[in-house]
Amino acid sequence: MFDRGLNLTLQAIRRQLTAMPHYLYLIRLIHHQTKRAFPGERLWTAAQLVHPATVRFLRVRNREGCDVYIQPFAEERNPGYILVDLDLTGPAVVETMRSNGHDPCVVLQTSHGNLQAWVQVSVTPIEPAVASRVGKQLADVYGADPASTDWRHLGRLAGFTNQKPQRRNWRGHSPWVKVLHARAGLAAQGAALLEAAAHHLGSPSNLAQFPLPPLPAATHTNAAVTTATAATARIYASWLHRLRILERFPQPDWSIADKWIAKELLQRGTPAPQVATILRGGSPGFPRQHSHPDDYLRRTLACAARELEASPFPGRDLFLHNYGQTHAPGS
Questions:
Q1: Phi/psi class of residue 26: alpha, beta or left (left: φ > 0; alpha: ψ in -120 to 50)?
Q2: Mean pLDDT computed over 136-158
Q3: What average pLDDT does the chain have?
Q4: Spatial distance between the Cα atoms of 161 and 290, rounded to a whole number of angstroms
Q5: Nearest C-alpha neighbor of 69 from the set 18, 31, 113, 120
Q6: What domains, with CATH codes, occur in the chain?
């Protein structure tokens, strides 16, 4: 039997998840009247979240008074998506965000006159302090809720009702959370936001002291980890091309290549944990012969940061001169 309500909720969820792709999502159910979270925090893939059985379960909890919240999940880091809670700012602010290069990938209407926007600023997870700072920057610029700027703040999942009594319409009905805009993609000025946040938080040498993310464990989420690794590998490969490393050196010293790419990324304000993720996922054969990969990454980042403070690229030209004498291809 066709269930129109279930179908509409499924459509809304699909639109939101398609526009903010990730390998795992954290779902939290909070009963509005008691303020208590439904037991357990659930991690689901997109495919699991749009399964009819999952949606039916969430719809029942929603009817019982639970608000349904979501965040792309990246363990102890921000997944690259920043929530901007645009309560009472009006829809015109979204156009202003687009014109400023802070294009939201998702805009939700959570009740009449209240919006939530998700802005993707990175394809890889970012350090919590950096993410919180970016959230504060966007809140300050667009008059968003300053209490919703922390790095792991949850947003609403489309297709469910907002259970806050003060949001009910004149008939006393709870409003539906609707998708107003959904289009996947990085914000044009996302890198600039990260750079400004990193600059605010400290110098490159300080960035190198951030704790590194752990190596991914072999779990049932291996396919998701593979997807994330593919994204970091593309970033690493793009810098190999931009620096012409393989063109100059058919058999490069990958430790030196890692340092060059780390310097390029740090110089552009990429947080150190994100740089480490890119090296780990993109450097060919990593961890290669390194018996302590995390220590290698810390030393590489620290060395890159020190050289940046002394001079942008003091060792690259010397390496090109010496190493290129015997390894450079014929002209």
A1: beta
A2: 92
A3: 81
A4: 52
A5: 31
A6: 4-192 (3.30.70.1790), 202-327 (no CATH)
